[in-house]
Structure formats: structure tokens, C-alpha cells
């Protein structure tokens, strides 16, 4: 093992964002002896402030213990003290990436030379094409290739099912496998090994296009909201989104229609793809025969009564603009009509008062605007 490999395997890990997904990653890393530094945007720092007040991160469920992370005052502080950073935020990725770029002039080696982000690996959960957004921001800023991150990694979804309730992190369960995509598509083995070592589950590496098509949150989450509005309004969160929200015919059939669009897009891109229950079985190490059976019987997803309490929820506000919109627009650019995705985008825009097709993750925002279908496939591969 080279000195750099050893550094990556033992280095402190930065967590940008302290929602349940980021905190679960932090707890699992600290349980295995890794040092972790946490940062959250001041407007989204409730969880972080509670942990600071307690002096510990308390975890229950799959991980039991009290852990002592470090706390950073700024993004710059995190970048100065780490080589590997998780981006684990639901909103504001573009603003955060621009903050990261602003730190580049101050990131120097021991000789005082500016090295920028060249030693850094960024891992985004969920990926939602963040690597493409970041690449566009780097280009717009005129950031030289030598100052850009050594690797940008997108993860298909959060590795753990977790909540932060009453100052306690509750990890209900973890995936058995996760899929990641990266730029560069085939990073050096030392980077792959370092990333793999951060997770407690098997990591499967893909190109960005394949990873995008392995993200199933945009397939299921928005429809849970759209087809259960009365339940959301009346249940005060005391309902099970999978067992109650996905198994009835209206939701179930619509979810499968969107999944057929996802598969159609993957085939248009020339990429391998699992159907919905196949991807869920891969993620969780289960063996259900149908999606309805998974939704009804999955222990991890039905353990607690904790459904959304309003339509102002990431199932719509993240998964539609960042998931459904780019997949629909990429399909359209390839000449593939994805009507089920289009219907979800239109309905979600209507109930939230947003215009997701215009304001979501458009082709322009991911650097694909004006490209031919063949060029899009090449860019994503």
C-alpha cells in the first residue's frame, strides 16, 4: 500500500450536511474508528446544533452508541482538514458547490503551492447527477483541471434508512448493496478502494448514465405523495408510505408505469438495468417476487409509522426536480417519449405551485443542452 493509499484509508472524513443520511454515515464511520468532521449550512443546522449542545451524537437501532464528531465553522475548514467529503444535503447543491470552488485559492500544500481540490474525493448522496452539475460549475469558474477533485462520486440512494428524532439518530436498517457512478468513470484503484472502505455494504461501480437509471427514488417517492394526499392530510404522519402508500392499485400501477419509462430510458442509453423489484432486491438483499410484495412486507420500510405530514417533502421537492426532470428531458433528447414521467412532473408542479420542468435539473444545468443524442450518451458514459 502506498503512502497516499494509507492516507486515504485513515484520513478524517468530512460530512457536509447533517440530515439523517449524513449523520448515519458519520455514526457508522466513527463506530469503525474513523474521525469525522461535521458541517451544516446555518439555515439547516438544527440537527447539528442539537448534537453540539449534547456534546455527542447518540445513535440507536442498527448502530448503538455515542460518538464524538468534530465540528467545522465553514466549508473551508472541512476542506482544509480532509481529503474525502460526503455531500449529504437535500437542497442547495449548486450553492454548496460554488462555495467549494471559492475555497480553491486557499487550499495549499506544505510548500505553499495552491493544490485546490486535487487531493479531494467528493461523494454525493443521493447522487442525482451532482457530478455533472459540479463539472459545469468548475468549467464556468474556469477552474483548471489540475485544481479539480480527483474523483466525483454519485451514490444511487442513501445507504441507510434513518431518522433523527428527539436528538437521537435512529438507524432502522441498511442496504446490502449500493450503486455508484463517478467522474472519471474508471478511477484509480486506490480511489475505488478508499471509497469502498467507507461503506459497510458491497459497492457496485458504474458510469453516470447507468447510475442514473439505478436511482429508483424518483420512480416511487413522488407517486406516494400524489396518490395519497388525503392520507397525508389526515394521518399526522402516522402511516406507512410503503405498505399503505404503494400497494393500492392507483399508486402501484402508476409506479410500475414510471418504472417502465426508467427501463425504456436505460435501454435507449444502451445501459444495463434491473426492473423495480430487482433493483430493490439488489439494494436490500431481499428476494421478493413483485414490487407490491416488497412494499407490503419489507421490514426496514414498514418498521415505524412515519409518513410525510405534508406535500412539502423531499419525496416531491427533491425527487421530482432532481430525478424525474433530468431523466424525462434526457429521454426527450434521445427521441424517447416518457409519458409517465411527464405526468408525474406535471402533477407535482400543480400541487406544489412549482414549475419543475423549467426550474428542475434541466439539460442546461447538467451540461447536456444542445447535444445530439449520441453526444449525450458519450458524455454520460
Automatic annotation (TrEMBL):
* Membrane-spanning intervals of the chain: none
What SUPFAM superfamilies does the record tag this protein with?
6-phosphogluconate dehydrogenase C-terminal domain-like, NAD(P)-binding Rossmann-fold domains
Where the record annotates domain Opine dehydrogenase, the positions are 214-350
- Which Pfam family, giving just one, matches this sequence? Octopine_DH
GO terms for molecular function, please? oxidoreductase activity
Q: Which InterPro entries match?
A: 6-PGluconate_DH-like_C_sf (IPR008927), 6PGD_dom2 (IPR013328), NAD(P)-bd_dom_sf (IPR036291), Opine_DH (IPR003421)
Q: What is this protein called?
A: 6-phosphogluconate dehydrogenase C-terminal domain-like protein
Organism in which the protein naturally occurs: Myriangium duriaei CBS 260.36
Amino acid at each position: 500500500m502506498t503512502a497516499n493509499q494509507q492516507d486515504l484509508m485513515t484520513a478524517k472524513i468530512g460530512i457536509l450536511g447533517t440530515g439523517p443520511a449524513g449523520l448515519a454515515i458519520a455514526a457508522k464511520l466513527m463506530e469503525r474508528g474513523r474521525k469525522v468532521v461535521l458541517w451544516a449550512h446555518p439555515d439547516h443546522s438544527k440537527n447539528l446544533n442539537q448534537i453540539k449542545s449534547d456534546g455527542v451524537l447518540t445513535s440507536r437501532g442498527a448502530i448503538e452508541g455515542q460518538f464524538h464528531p468534530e465540528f467545522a465553522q465553514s466549508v473551508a475548514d472541512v476542506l482544509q482538514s480532509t481529503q474525502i467529503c460526503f455531500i449529504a444535503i437535500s437542497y442547495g447543491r449548486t450553492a454548496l458547490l460554488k462555495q467549494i470552488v471559492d475555497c480553491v485559492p486557499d487550499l495549499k500544500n506544505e510548500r505553499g503551492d495552491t493544490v485546490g481540490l486535487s487531493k479531494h474525493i467528493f461523494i454525493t448522496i443521493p447522487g442525482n447527477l451532482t457530478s455533472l452539475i459540479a463539472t459545469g460549475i468548475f468549467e464556468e469558474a474556469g477552474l483548471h483541471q489540475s485544481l479539480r477533485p480527483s474523483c466525483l462520486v454519485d451514490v444511487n440512494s442513501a445507504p441507510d434508512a434513518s431518522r433523527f428524532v428527539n436528538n437521537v439518530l435512529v438507524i432502522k436498517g441498511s442496504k446490502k448493496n449500493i450503486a455508484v457512478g463517478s467522474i472519471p468513470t474508471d478511477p484509480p484503484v486506490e480511489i475505488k478502494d478508499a471509497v469502498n472502505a467507507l461503506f459497510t455494504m458491497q459497492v457496485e461501480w458504474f458510469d453516470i448514465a447507468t447510475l442514473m437509471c439505478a436511482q429508483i427514488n424518483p420512480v416511487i417517492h413522488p407517486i406516494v405523495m400524489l396518490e395519497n394526499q388525503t392520507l397525508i392530510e389526515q394521518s399526522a404522519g402516522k402511516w406507512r408510505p410503503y405498505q399503505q402508500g404503494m400497494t393500492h392499485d392507483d399508486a402501484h400501477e402508476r409506479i410500475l408505469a414510471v418504472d417502465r419509462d426508467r427501463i425504456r430510458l436505460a435501454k435507449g442509453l444502451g445501459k444495463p438495468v434491473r426492473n423495480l423489484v430487482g433493483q430493490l432486491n439488489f439494494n436490500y438483499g431481499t428476494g421478493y417476487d413483485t414490487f407490491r410484495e416488497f412494499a407490503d412486507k419489507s421490514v426496514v420500510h414498514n418498521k415505524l409509522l412515519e409518513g410525510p405530514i405534508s406535500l412539502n417533502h423531499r419525496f416531491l421537492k427533491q425527487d421530482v426536480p432532481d430525478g424525474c426532470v433530468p431523466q424525462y428531458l434526457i429521454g426527450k433528447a434521445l427521441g424517447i417519449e416518457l409519458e409517465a414521467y411527464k405526468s408525474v412532473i406535471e402533477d407535482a408542479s400543480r400541487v406544489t405551485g412549482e414549475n419543475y420542468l423549467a426550474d428542475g435539473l434541466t439539460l442546461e444545468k447538467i451540461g447536456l443542452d444542445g447535444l445530439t443524442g449520441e453526444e449525450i450518451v458519450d458524455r454520460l458514459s
